[in-house]
Amino acid sequence: MSSPAPARQSRDHATTLGARARRAAGAAALGIVPTVVFLGTADALARLMGASTAPLLALSQTIIALTPPAAVAFAIEHLGTADKPVLLLSVVLGGLVVAAGIGLLARRRPRTAAAAFTALEAGLVCAVAARPGSRAPDLGAALLGAVLGFAAFVLVAALARRVRRGNRRAHRGRNEGQASDPGRRALLATAGALAAVGALGLAVGRSITVVGGAAIGAAARLVLPHPVSPMPAVPASAQIAVDGAVPFITPAADFYRIDTALTPPDIAPEQWSLRVHGLVEEEFTLSMDELLSLPLVERALTMTCVSNPVGGELVGTAAWLGYPLRSLLARARPQPEADMVLSGSIDGFTAGTPLEAMRDGRDALLAIRMNGEQLRPEHGFPARLIVPGLYGFVSATKWVTNLEVTRFDRAQGYWTKRGWDERGPILAASRIEVPGPLAQVPAGTVVAAGTAWAQRAGVRAVQVRLDDGDWRSAHLATAVSQDTWRQWRCEFPAVQPGLHALTVRAIDGRGRVQTAERRDSIPNTATGHHRIQFTAQ
Ligand SMILES: Nc1nc2c(c(=O)[nH]1)N[C@H]1C(S)=C(S)[C@@H](COP(=O)(O)O)O[C@H]1N2
Ligand SMILES: [Mo]
To answer: Is 398 near ligand 1, meaning CB less than 6 Å away?
Structure first.
């Protein structure tokens, strides 16, 4: 023991940075581990208890609700269907940063840290409670998870305190490392086990994409009626025979999905009902049994999202089976001053549809079936609206449970409140599917093909031009109805080798030419002609 102090000092100096970083990481874990326990067990419990939301999900949902609409639109346009995983991941990372902060705080101010952790949990439990459609199991699972998370917090904090006390004693006794080792091992083992429990919970839970059991089980039990008015067969000539062109009927699995729900609400059909009320002579509530006993019709209809970029894929055609909204509204007898129907979903989404569009004879449906199958949860199971000629955001409410007959000067739908159009009529649009963007094709005859739509007016003509040449009329596939898209094909002979551009435009059934003017999707869809480049070799 000649001169231990200087020796230890230099060693301390050399390891200070590493040791500090290790200590900070250890402290951060004191916040992260209990948070993972909370989120994980709440998630797993939510799934086991048949809840429709859990803290992680509810937080993400709340973030969507509070995000500026322009940012939501940006995410939809640029991330497409990846918007949800990206959001969830950001929420998880953000949550871990907050949790790490609480852990670091716990070293100096254990009480404040405990209060912060409780506040975090309470905030998330409130987010669960505030979700539309949140029921007892949702709240129960979140609360139980919060209790387990808090227990984990107290446990790891106590073990960490023991390790710190051990360290101090060891330090005084100058036999550093020895006394604290068993305590440290216990802390590491406990934290590791707890983190594993939390991670397992997240895996068992349903926050990412898993769809709950109730709706799926119920879907299997539902016996679907046959349409009283079956869909006229789609003629083979409605399909353009060019490789790479989309099929006329979009398979449900490929049908675009746009909504503000992270996971589709889980609604058992026996529990579903649709309330029709507001400015009506007779308000009523429709059950699924009643709906199934009504004369249903099946129609091919093309749906489009207002956020579809020029040439984009947020458009699809399906065979929809449902009950005409016109008949439903006839039963309610709207009052003369009514001019809008505010439809509401169990998830809180609303759309304001011109009353006229639901009564003027078009095939506006309360739909329960898509392409001969049960509606998929992500497309609105057990029931949704489809109104031909209007973008989805003002008309196609999924998981619909409420129709309030009202007036445009009294109520607004979800996206209209956020700056989008009030009435959302679909504008004529067209896109090139073949050749693909930047494709390489043999020089000589080049075949172009694609799709055009102008619901309610129909597509009268499609014109295509090569580079700056003249517009040529495309050959059109057979029209199924004015409410469905129309496929086209156009041949260009003697295309020279080199880089070329193709541009397309549609002319609707009333002779209106699709505008070349480029504009943004707010307030009522992006416009401009679709143009692609390809190389002929
Ligand atoms: N409940 C609910 N319904 C909704 C939405 C939503 O966010 N929530 N989005 C609407 C929009 S913007 C569109 S374009 C269509 C898309 O329907 P799909 O996902 O079945 O293609 O649903 C509409 N119905
Ligand atoms: Mo949309």
So the answer is: yes
